[in-house]
Amino acid sequence: MALVKAMTDGLTPMFQQYLEIRRSVPDALLFFRLGDFYELFFDDAHVAHRVLGLTLTSRDGGQERVPMCGVPYHAAEGYIKTLLDHGYKVAICEQAEDPKATKGLVRREVVRIITPGTVIEEGLLDDEHRFLAAAFGAEGAYGTAFVDVTTGECTVLAESLRTPLELVEELIAYRAKEVLVPADFPEGLKALIRSHTGAHVTPLRPTPDDPTVPDETRNARSAADGTADLTAPSPGDAAPSEAAAAMTGALNDAGLKEALQDVPPAAREAALALIRYIRRVYPPLFATLRPFRPYSRERHMVLDPYTRRNLELFRRQLSGEASGTLFSVVDLTETPMGRRRLARRLERPFADPEAIAERLAGVRLMVREGLLRTRVREALERMYDLERILARIALGTPSGGDLVRLRATLAEALRLKDLLGAVADPPLAVGALLAIDEAPFIAMHDELHRALADDPPPTPGDGRFFRRGYDAELDGLRAIVEDGTDWLRRYEAKERERTGIRSLKIGYNKVFGHYIEVTKVHLNRVPDDYVRRQTLAGVERYVTEALKAWEAAYTESAEALGARERVLYAALVERLNARKNAFHALADALAELDVTAALAELAVRRRYAEPKIAADGRLRLKGSRHPVVEAALPEGRFVKNDVVLDEHRQILLLTGPNMAGKSTLMRQVALSQILFQIGSFVPADEAELSPVDRIFTRMGAADDLIEGESTFMVEMKEVRLAVTEATPRSLLIIDELGRGTSTEDGMAIAQAVIEYIHDALRAKTLISTHYHELAALEERLPRLVNAHMGVEFKDDAIVFTHRLKPGSTSRSYGIDVAARAGLPERIVRRARALVRRYAQRELTEQPTLFAHAEEPAKDGVNATGQAILAELAALDLNRLTPLAAFDRLRAWRERLQQASDKRP
After folding, report:
1. Dist CA 677 CA 362 (whole Å)
2. pTM of the model
3. Rounded-to-integer distance, Cα 157 and Cα 294, Å
């Protein structure tokens, strides 16, 4: 971000300090602490005024008035969240010394840079993962890695990505909030990442010691003194050589170095960039991270950006709302941990049959054991976000509420483990919890119970954080402080009695400490040993030697009490953090159990069927339903359908009018496949499914105005992706293939695509079309089957039965649909008349299918005929006179005769 160019000469010392600090973080907005406010100056103030709606004021800067906006420090989180949502970074600059104890300018320093991918503050988070991603490499060898500092999860891709689209697919699957890329990454690829992920893209420029200082930061720092490699220290930075050494040690400590040995170079570079970036913006975040876990794309179903959008997994395609999506229907989890686990599974469904079978076994158990499922879900409902609590423990900043919630979660987890102990041959979801050693959790729960007060304050220091009896020294100091408070009450009563002033009272403020307050009407009764401290309207404030002596002793005891509480707090947090690996294992097990119980609850509520895993590529759904549409309808209203795709029925070609249910049917098949591969039962009476490696969809119609692409171009891109990336293990969903262009071109493309899928890809495919002539392909393509959505007429009105029926239909019922949509009657009557006229015109013939062949016929007659057909298609019949038409026909006949005479 550009700063207002201002010379420091002539500015006040504070603004000179501000500009010096501001130059060290040029890619962030600077929240500059002044008393109880964070102030923003110069260009930052204008940004805050525009984005946050704050009042823009100004302050004397010496030579000029400086634009200024401010937010209260205690309410800053809400403003920071808004800025992050708008893609800005925020640098927090705090006062590094007590202003009251400092003469002159208070020293300040940046203590934290908050970026979209490194948010840890509780008030800025929701229940979702918040991944920071890095993407490195080049065409043919991209690599990527991900870190969620709020849960400690670190993953790195174990193989290279071939294309930019594959890279984008991975970034979308993790829903990255911020993506780190090299500064020399192609601009087109950075734009592609932004448009498909919505993430903030941070360019990085390598340096000899730190390859991840943001490019704009390095440029600005270099400009400061003209050098090319100057890198001023960031929050918590060591000197360059020390930073490199610390990095190596940290990798060894966390086991990261070993985890990165076998991953491709670009992925390793991405993982290291993440760690170095985190150390730059807020080094303590490094403590929250777990070792990197390599993962493989081959073990998961791949969903491209178009498919995610078309199937509305997390967001509605048009409105962008979260309601009415697949996730909104299937998410019955009880904990934030389970909700994140379910979302991750839906983003990356399993492709491994064994992984699917393991998850289905857990759901089957919970469906069968209804009472057990209920008790498990009740226990989970009483738990808290263990992963996020562990992150704050790792940072050394858990609140009193965090520790109370940890205590409650441990108690429920231990009870849950006992409850599940009776399960024979436990599946993965149960076995993971049972395999955990409960001894350390019992010990930590008991200590938290002994240590914490019933309702401790957020931070230690005032004597109310720990329970009485936990620490003898603390109890002694607390008694002294409490006795001092009692002394103050007794002293107040004594002074009232001694002076006869009934309104006398003892008060306190931060400036003068404790004082005796007397109204002015009683000044004649004030004893000589009272020393005046402050005069206010209507009252005088005094101190006595006894009060001063007590205050000194009390302050010393209170400070000792606070210090002892903080020592005990730090020791307790350290002991908890020493068990972080065991805690993370517990969190993982609870998340898996929550997802399993939620999917079982879904299956029972919605009457989903357990799918059988087929090994031959078969897809068979009996009584299939759309999970989202069904949930929005009254019970029993959704019309079920049977769908079968196998080695004999590879392609299902659907015909029928709009609104008849073709798109719904195709979507429900794809959604059932996804549910099956996350280990869920599916919305059907019976199901037999095989894992697929990818699902491709071409649905709906929308221009891409940003890219300058028409509806037809968008459609062709989606089809191209399917036919170039699909394998025999893929599932293709193509709605209204060939629309958006002329009838002849559209039908030709549709036929060519269908033939290619049938002959070359051999992938399971559902295709809908309004080109009824394509139904003739059933006679030529042995694995293509026609079907249509049923239509009936009652009282001359069209009725959609939404039932799938065998065979094709020869009508689109477009005018009937238009009438049902409320088109004016005059237009409907005219359209019906025109249809009858079109059908009677001799020169207007419906296009017909050409022979299914790899190469066109090459003899002269066919070549001449094709040329004549092209000329016929180009004729403007509305301007062609009868005489001219006759001349054309005669010429064409002569050409055909000549071509025929030349045949051998």
Report:
1. 14
2. 0.83
3. 6
